[in-house]
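wait is this the right file?? whatever heres the structure
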């Protein structure tokens, strides 16, 4: 009798003590990150049969469990990875936004001021101080472009460093997960779960999600496999596969992330492998946002410098004797690079190569390109514009989007080339003209209306538009009868070198220029029959401002991003200031979009974390209530032992009597 009571009391004290011990452990770990509330699982001991029925034998302690929810744990890790990706990209974009200041600090303002300076020079082309102002503003514009290039390089260097830091963290966490997997596997056969080790592993998975989004797969031995998108393993059993950062095979200034193979080699992973975490955010910023900013700024710099240099070459400078204007700007050249994996000869030299030349800077696109052999057309190449995915099959030497592509050697079927017509344009942009007399303000030809003209037509502008002009020739335009809304005219072009005259005819229309010998003559008013205008070599270049006016007109010319239509006509484009506004607006929109995405994903991640904590975390109020409950139960069990002892003593005394 007494022994049965004693056994039941002992079991009760043991069970309640286990409860008290677990509750105390919960309370002490309530503020430990990743700790899951533990509980003691109890079961009723199998009853003992007697003639009077089954009598209970107390309670058994089965095991200690942990509050875990696989779904919430996985969702919390996934949403944390998304939030980390959005936050990393947002931080980088906000730094990029500083490269494009608004107002007077911006590149657009400097471009406008530079071209406005041409107006002052046109007002007094002999004034050296006005010319010096133009040169100073040109230097300021070039410096702002170059400084932007330096800042973009600094951002790229920051991305490279952050990627290395993130990859180091991933490798450390993955190694820790593999170590815990090994410890869990050792105790897997004892029939009880290693709760603290499981908590540590879940916490490490959560930490890993800050850098890369992963999925997990449990194994029969209690270990957990950790995989990235595409089934790429990070941890399998007690083995962790390290990641590494290497130069991008297409552009060594950028970084790519790879995984170490069993043989020691590095296999680079595509950006699509990283679907969440800081690494994904950094790669997206590097390969999309930073490239868009570089190419947009480079497109603008290439167009401005090319058009200014071109117009400068069409005028006459202030030197004695006057000569054609020298280039004002120089910019970084277009580049084309081999992928590091392209075929090489025994000496390590690439078997094929690509070079780029700019055919028309105003038609350059704000994009990079991929080039590869066209498998369907021998001798042709597939050119993919990265900005919009447009694919075209081109021949060697073809001119596309303002650039001419020249291939040397015979590319292999797996060879790839990266074409960067404007990516490095702003780097090293500078002015190469320092003499104010070198500015070509004068036009090589001047137009004069006959004093005996009876119509209202006046010379509005005379612009040299073609380097093929022969300024020694004299052109005479004589207007005849009306033709619809216009007026017919005849022209003659006298060449003093050969003492010959060429003649022809045309029809003048209001608002349309008359083009001849590389110049365009624009009239204001309406000529009468018999009126004439002569375009002859400029007699006094020092006082002529024809080319300065043409340079000033570039301010309103749509020179950036022109395109050739199916009929060969060139049109479209935007002005220099509008181009800068477009790039700045693109960055601003990206920042706002990233900010919105970061706020939403952070909110979702916080909600999932709170749901997980409410399901698996410690509630101190509940633990305090249970502490009092099982304290009383423990005391009651002790009372059972006391009664059992008294019963046993009574039995002993009765037996002794």
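ok assuming it is, sequence goes like this
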């Amino acid at each position: 009798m007494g022994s049965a009571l004693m056994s039941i009391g002992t079991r009760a004290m043991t069970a309640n003590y286990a409860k008290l011990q677990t509750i105390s452990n919960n309370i002490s770990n309530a503020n430990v990150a990743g700790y899951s509330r533990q509980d003691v699982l109890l079961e009723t001991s199998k009853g003992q049969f007697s003639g009077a029925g089954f009598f209970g034998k107390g309670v058994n302690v089965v095991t200690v469990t942990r509050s875990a929810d696989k779904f919430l744990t996985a969702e919390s890790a996934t949403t944390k990875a998304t939030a980390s990706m959005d936050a990393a990209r947002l931080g980088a974009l906000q730094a990029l936004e500083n490269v494009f200041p608004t107002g007077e600090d911006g590149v657009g303002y400097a471009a406008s001021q530079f071209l406005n300076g041409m107006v002052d020079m046109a007002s007094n082309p002999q004034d050296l101080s006005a010319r010096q102002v133009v040169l100073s503003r040109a230097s300021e514009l070039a410096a702002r472009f170059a400084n932007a290039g330096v800042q973009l390089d600094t951002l790229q260097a920051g991305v490279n460093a952050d990627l290395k830091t993130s990859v180091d963290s991933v490798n450390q966490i993955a190694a820790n997960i593999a170590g815990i997997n090994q410890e869990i596997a050792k105790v897997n056969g004892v029939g009880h779960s290693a709760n603290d080790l499981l908590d540590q592993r879940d916490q490490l998975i959560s930490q890993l999600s800050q850098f890369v989004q992963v999925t997990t797969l449990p194994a029969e031995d209690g270990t957990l496999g950790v995989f990235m998108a595409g089934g790429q393993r990070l941890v399998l059993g007690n083995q962790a596969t390290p990641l590494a950062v290497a130069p991008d095979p297409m552009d060594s200034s950028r970084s790519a992330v790879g995984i170490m193979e069993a043989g020691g080699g590095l296999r680079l992973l595509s950006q699509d492998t990283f679907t969440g975490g800081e690494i994904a955010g950094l790669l997206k910023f590097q390969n999309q946002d930073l490239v868009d900013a570089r190419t947009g700024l480079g497109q603008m710099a290439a167009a401005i410098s090319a058009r200014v240099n071109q117009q400068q070459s069409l005028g006459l400078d202030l030197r004695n004797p006057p000569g054609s204007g020298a280039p004002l700007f120089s910019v970084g050249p277009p580049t084309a690079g081999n992928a590091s994996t392209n075929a090489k000869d025994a000496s390590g030299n690439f078997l094929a190569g690509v070079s780029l030349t700019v055919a028309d800077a105003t038609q350059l696109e704000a994009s990079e390109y991929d080039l590869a052999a066209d498998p369907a057309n021998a001798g042709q190449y597939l050119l993919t514009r990265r900005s919009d995915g447009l694919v075209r099959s081109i021949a060697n030497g073809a001119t596309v989007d303002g650039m001419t592509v020249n291939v040397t050697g015979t590319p292999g079927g797996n060879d790839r080339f990266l074409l960067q017509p404007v990516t490095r344009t702003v780097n090293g942009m500078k002015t190469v003209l320092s003499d104010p007399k070198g500015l070509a303000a004068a036009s090589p030809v001047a137009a004069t209306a006959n004093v005996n003209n009876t119509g209202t037509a006046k010379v509005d502008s005379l612009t040299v538009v073609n380097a093929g002009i022969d300024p020694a020739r004299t052109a005479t335009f004589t207007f005849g009868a009306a033709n619809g809304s216009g007026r017919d005219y005849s022209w003659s072009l006298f060449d003093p070198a050969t003492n010959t005259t060429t003649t022809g005819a045309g029809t003048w229309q209001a608002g349309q220029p008359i083009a001849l010998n590389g110049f365009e003559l624009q009239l204001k008013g309406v000529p009468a029959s018999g009126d004439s205008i002569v375009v002859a070599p400029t007699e006094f270049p020092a006082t002529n401002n024809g080319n300065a006016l043409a340079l000033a007109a570039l301010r309103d010319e749509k020179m950036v991003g022109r395109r050739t239509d199916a009929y060969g006509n060139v049109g479209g484009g935007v002005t220099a200031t509008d181009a800068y506004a477009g790039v700045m607006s693109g960055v601003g929109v990206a920042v706002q979009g990233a900010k919105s995405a970061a706020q939403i994903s952070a909110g979702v991640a916080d909600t999932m974390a709170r749901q997980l904590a409410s399901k698996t975390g410690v509630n101190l109020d509940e633990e305090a209530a249970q502490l009092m409950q099982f304290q009383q139960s423990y005391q009651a069990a002790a009372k059972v032992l006391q009664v059992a002892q008294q019963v046993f003593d009574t039995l002993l005394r009765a037996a002794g009597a």
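Residues 128-186 form the longest helix (59 residues). so i think its the right one actually
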